[in-house]
Amino acid sequence: MTDFVTVTSDAPEARTGAIKLHGAAAFAGMHKAGRLAAETLDMLVPHMVPGVATAEIDRLVYDFIVANGGVPATLGYRGYTHSSCISINHVVCHGIPGERTLKAGEIVNVDVTPILDGWHGDSSRMYLVGDVPIRARRLVEVTYECLMLGIEAARPGAHMGDVAHAIQRHAERNRYGVVRDFCGHGLGRLFHDAPEVVHVGRPGTGPELRPGMIFTIEPMINIGRPDVKLLDDGWTAVTRDRSLSAQFEHSIGITDSGCEIFTLSPKGWTQPPYQ
Ligand code: MF3
Ligand code: CO
Ligand code: CO
């Protein structure tokens, strides 16, 4: 039995395991935080070119978020010391910014989570560095479609399994593998909260979606097998078979009629090429 709780106060939220049903104030706060996440990802577009170090991209993210009144949620989160995760090629997620420079032909995910007025806006997008082979561009395109199909399935009365199934069906029809080891998550005043948002599943299973729920959908899709491996740094997740991996993430809220996306690009930049 799924536990739901209606959240009305402005007080710091507790991680109770219950799924929170938020009100209008939370949706307004999430729209602002989500817009800052999207603007941060927009800002990076001209910088995602060969020769740029991932640490430099991370510094741009920090400076932009702070200049706009936010704080990167990942700074100091479980010992993580950067403002973004930057995941290149076969890195599935949680790539750590560093001296590594971008090379032409690579596909790169940047994941940012500004906290603005206490609310978390969590979003990631793929970028193409220089000319990228069609095989990799296709993975990126199908991964974006997977995210949007999941979002289309997210409405009151539907179940988490419907979202998962929409994603899994599209990925597997394209003979891609859907990563099982990482999920989307509830968020709001907390970064990671109930419910767990899986990206593979069966229709009609899992918690029912209700107006007021706020969560991310963030499918990680591999050209090869779904299996991942954690590197010795304790963060970087890579595909076990070293195949390319892509991911897009939006933060959304369930409304009476469907859902709202908090992290839409004000420039309309949904998937690459961004221009
Ligand atoms: N932004 C990631 C997510 O989508 C979480 C990153 S946590 C970090 O949930 F510590 F690795 F940065
Ligand atoms: Co997330
Ligand atoms: Co994220």
What is this structure, in a nutshell?
The protein is of the alpha+beta class and 275 residues long. It is built from 4 helices and 19 strands. It has a single domain (19-261), classed as Creatine Amidinohydrolase, CATH 3.90.230.
Q: What do you see in this structure?
A:
The chain has a three-stranded antiparallel beta sheet, with helices on one face. The chain has a three-stranded antiparallel beta sheet with strand order 4-6-9. A three-stranded antiparallel beta sheet has the order 5-16-15, with no helix packed on it. It starts with a strand and ends in a 14-residue tail after the last strand. The relative contact order is 0.19. The protein has a single domain, classed as Alpha-Beta Complex (Creatine Amidinohydrolase), CATH 3.90.230.10. It contains four helices and 19 strands. It is globular and about 50 Å long. It is of the alpha+beta class and 275 residues long. The site of one cobalt (II) ion (CO) has 5 residues, from loops. 2-amino-4-trifluoromethylsulfanyl-butyric acid (MF3) binds next to loops.
